[in-house]
Amino acid sequence: MKKIFFILFLLHSSFVIVNSQWQPDVRLTNDPAESYTSYNNEMCVAASGDSVYAVWFDIRNGNYEIYFKRSANAGISWGPDTRLTNNTAFSGNPTITISGSFVYVVWSEGGGLFFKRSANAGETWESEIQLYTNCYDGPSIAVWGSSVYVVWATSTNQLRYKKSTNWGSNWQTDILLTNTIFFPEPPSVAASGSFVHIVWNDERDGNREIYYKRSSDGGINWGADTRLTNNPEQSFWPSIAVSGSTVHVVWQDNRNESILNIFYKRSTNDGASWGADTQITNSNGDAWLPSITASGQAVHVIWYDFRDSNNEIYYKFSSNSGTGWGADIRMTFDTSESRFPSVAASGMSVHAVWTDLRDGNREIYYKRNPTGNFVGINQINTTELPKGYNLSQNYPNPFNPTTKIRFALPPSPKGEGLGVRVIVYDILGREMAILVNEQLKPGIYEVTLDASNFSSSIYYYRLIAGEYTETKKMILLK
């Protein structure tokens, strides 16, 4: 019994240490004009492997334009600012996502919706494309493999959607998803496999509530609107993330004593049904604009909070797919306000960007935790690329309570990263854990399964990479 307690103590201690390693703030912009990250639904940071990308809008040239910056070493150092737009109209509220070497940015410009991509990890950029003539505030974008999904609200109370199936080279005709939105704000979209998930807030019932809609066939057909919240106060500014079949949603809500707190809700069956609302903050000052990302069982939420009589950035982490949550972590400590944060995770690292007023004008700041994405995935070979797919036998096997799983990904003929999943099942075929759900570059990877909450039994683990699938058996003996 003492030995078991000691092991659990070590595991808990390791968790606390890992999640306390946020490094110092890094100033990404340095000019006398104002620079802004977007609201929570337009993600301003994206990461894949050691590549980290940030996007914002900036008035340094006398007009608000879209800017971009990248790091090739997991946020340790950053390249120069890259101006992505150059016109007389207001360009703002950008959001960014990536798939392999493709980087995608969408934004609102002069009341329209615009798109721009880089096919070489942000080194050079193609010409911008106007996707639609009416975009209220900002759009949201998601990607899975070669499919790119964009969703936005219009000033005429519509929710619209557009898709590309060839990495953004061509775009299909936009689709009207609903025309009953009242008080439109930017929606949020996420994708995993053939499922596409969208959330937004809506006043159709006389009160701001969170609504959800999904497609199970890659955006071809869409289900009915689903109301996720039902309370007499206001629920708004939702953000969505997906990992495998688990869909995570966060939003701000003032149902308790008129103070805004962050609430969370999840579905474990691709959005078919939903669990209860969970209040994950208990602030005595308003908590605003949460942003969420998920990687395997790791879920990360970031927001800004007035509990310290000043708007500061706060962060929260779940290591078990939203079942339980750690303590709130204060990220910024300055006398001026910090707002509009976004969060991304890749490998073991977590990355955050936000807007900060500490320098007398608003600048873009960045912070990273190099070991905060507690999923145990590690690229162990970066020099020699495998010639074929391979899923190795876990080791040790039998195991108690942790084991390692190694897999190999060869280069793709088209050069892009692959949507990769490593999933653990019990002997009845029930999904027990999603260890990997990321776009990964070619290489050899190793991921750790912590089965502390599993019972002794036979389990199966499966690698899904593009059209390749392989399954192996493992034994847990406690």
Describe the overall structure.
- 50% of the residues are buried.
- Strands 2, 3, 4, 5 and 6 form a five-stranded antiparallel sheet that branches.
- This protein has one helix at 2-18; strands spanning 26-27, 35-36, 45-48, 51-58, 65-71, 82-83, 91-99, 102-109, 112-118, 129-132, 140-144, 147-153, 159-164, 175-178, 188-192, 195-202, 209-215, 226-227, 235-243, 246-256, 259-267, 278-279, 287-295, 298-305, 312-318, 329-330, 338-346, 349-356, 363-369, 378-381, 390-391, 402-409, 418-426, 431-440, 443-450, 457-465, 468-476.
- A hairpin with a 2-residue loop joins strand 27 (338-346) and strand 28 (349-356).
- The protein is mainly β.
- The chain has two domains: 23-91 and 140-369, Neuraminidase; 378-476, Sandwich (Immunoglobulin-like), CATH 2.60.40.
- The radius of gyration is 21 Å and the shape is globular.
- Residues 1-20 have low confidence and may be disordered.
